[in-house]
Design a protein that fits this description.
- The protein is an alpha/beta fold.
- It is built from 15 helices and 16 strands.
- The strands form 2 sheets. Strands 3-4-5-2-6-7-1-10-8-9 form a 10-stranded mixed beta sheet. A 6-stranded mixed beta sheet has the order 15-14-11-12-13-16, with helices on both faces.
- Helix 2 packs across helix 3 and helix 13 crosses helix 15.
- The longest helix is centred in the last third of the chain and has 19 residues.
Length: 466
């Protein structure tokens, strides 16, 4: 007898999601809630239909094939149900002829590839990564002649700045940002009029309000629901991989609230990224023997654009990070280069050993030329250059440092620059506040955390002037 394959959702939100008859059902709201498994299992109820077509989307095609991602999990499930896989097309064809495919919509222009598609089930993994235009355009491709009513299933993690936040706001507490448990899974109906959503608790209400104005044949309400879930709802993952929760707990406050607690309102604002009390009291000094040192510079474009240049010296010693020194000012490019050189000299002389020198490379050809000049002038200090574009946004760059600050693993020396440094970090990323010291500290921390310092003898060459 053939093997029996039993796929059973976990009690709670996962079961509710798979049982929903909404036209559009969205599941998740936190990491680890069993979203991806549910999205993969959902279309299996129709694969006995030879004309059934389902497509599950990610924004980038490469996101499917990451280790342990949707493609790996689909290959664990679908072939056991008799599906043949086409790796090149990323498609599974079942014995009936029904198919489940994996697609991507990287840019708005990518939509043209789906112009003539008829897709009975649209699936989105991480809907917040797609644009609003992508979603509404593909809704027009959500059509079917196979006898299955067209429908959409999606998963997401909270993002207060995403267009999806508006879509789901009825299910979210406006004060706390957490999902309202009493509204989980409840259906609401909407129509889209001139790009705006009109909602109702009953489709009859939408007909009464809009039939006359739009014509009855144009008022076709869609039902929508949101089913929140967190890691606590995924007992299997929590049991098999308890380290997963530990990883979420180690995230910075904003990310921890989003991915562990499912908060839809939290965003990086003053006091949410860095808090003064997280640093503890200022220290009189730090260890002088052992550890690795990095001085990282965030460079202003000019002396007149209002920004500052800042160089943050940081020490890593036995798992603790010490902010040892901050040099900050508004200088013309020539003056700034002199300050960087003189500071590098002073660091070596003060510590008697190598201090890694990290410098931001500004965007464009001007930044490349400036980096080339600095590479020559600072050659004896072995400068390393970082490009902001490859490091992510300022908030992204600051996340690892924020997590360690909150864990009380970052300390600040009691020096004249400390007050301005802490004030800037605590107000990051508020409008009107500079972030040069934040960037310098983030660059320094990320270099120390990513790889050990290169060992070597003290630099030789010019030591006392140029």
């Amino acid at each position: 007898m053939p093997d029996v394959v039993e796929l059973r959702p976990q009690p709670g939100p996962q079961t509710d999601f798979l049982a929903s008859d909404a036209d559009i059902a969205v599941y998740g709201g936190a990491a680890g809630g069993g979203k991806s498994w549910a999205l993969l299992v959902e279309p299996l109820r129709h694969v006995h239909n030879r004309r059934f077509r389902a497509v599950i989307f990610r924004r980038m095609s490469t996101e499917f094939t990451k280790s342990g991602g949707l493609w790996d999990e689909a290959n664990e499930i679908y072939p056991r149900l008799g599906a043949n896989v086409n790796q090149q097309l990323m498609r599974f064809r079942f014995p009936s002829g029904g198919t489940i495919s994996f697609g991507h919509i990287e840019h708005d222009k990518t939509l043209e590839a789906w112009h003539s598609a008829q897709i009975a089930m649209l699936g989105y993994d991480e809907l917040t990564t797609f644009t609003e235009r992508m979603f509404w355009y593909m809704l027009s491709r959500n059509r079917s002649l196979c006898g299955v009513r067209p429908y959409i299933r999606a998963t997401w993690n909270p993002n207060a700045d995403s267009w999806v936040a508006k879509l789901v706001e009825w299910w979210i507490d406006p004060e706390t940002g957490y999902p309202l448990s009493e509204r989980a899974g409840l259906l609401r109906w909407f129509i889209r009029v001139d790009g705006q959503l009109e909602w109702a608790d009953d489709p009859a209400d939408l007909h009464a309000r809009f039939d006359a104005a739009l014509g009855a044949h144009n008022v076709l309400p869609k039902s929508f629901t949101f089913i929140p879930a967190t890691l606590a709802d995924n007992k299997i993952l929590d049991l098999r991989n308890p380290e997963y929760r530990a990883g979420l707990m180690a995230m910075p406050l904003v990310e921890r609230e989003r991915f562990l607690a499912g908060n839809w309102k939290i965003r990086p604002t003053a006091g949410n990224v860095f808090r003064r009390d997280w640093f503890g009291g200022l220290l009189a000094d730090c260890p002088r023997v052992g550890g690795e040192l990095v001085r990282a510079w965030d460079k202003a474009g000019s002396a007149t654009d209002g920004d500052w240049s800042a160089g943050v010296l940081m020490l890593r010693h036995e798992g603790v990070y010490y902010v040892v020194d901050v040099v900050r000012g508004r200088w013309r490019p020539r003056e700034r280069n002199d300050v960087i050189y003189q500071t590098a000299q002073a660091d070596v002389e003060a510590w008697g050993r190598r201090v890694r020198l990290v410098i931001e490379q500004e965007p464009g050809n001007g930044g490349a030329e400036s980096a080339a000049v600095s590479a020559v002038e600072l050659a004896e200090f072995g400068p390393e250059f970082v490009r902001p574009a490859t490091e992510g946004s300022k908030e992204v760059r600051a996340r690892p440092l924020s997590a360690q600050v909150e864990a009380r693993n970052v300390r600040v020396l009691n020096r004249p620059w400390a007050a301005a440094f802490l004030e800037e970090l605590e107000n990051f990323p508020s409008p009107g506040w500079h972030d040069d010291q934040v960037d310098g500290a983030a660059y320094a921390f990320n270099k120390l955390a990513q790889q050990p310092a290169r060992r070597g003898a003290l630099p030789i060459g010019r030591r006392y002037g140029r």
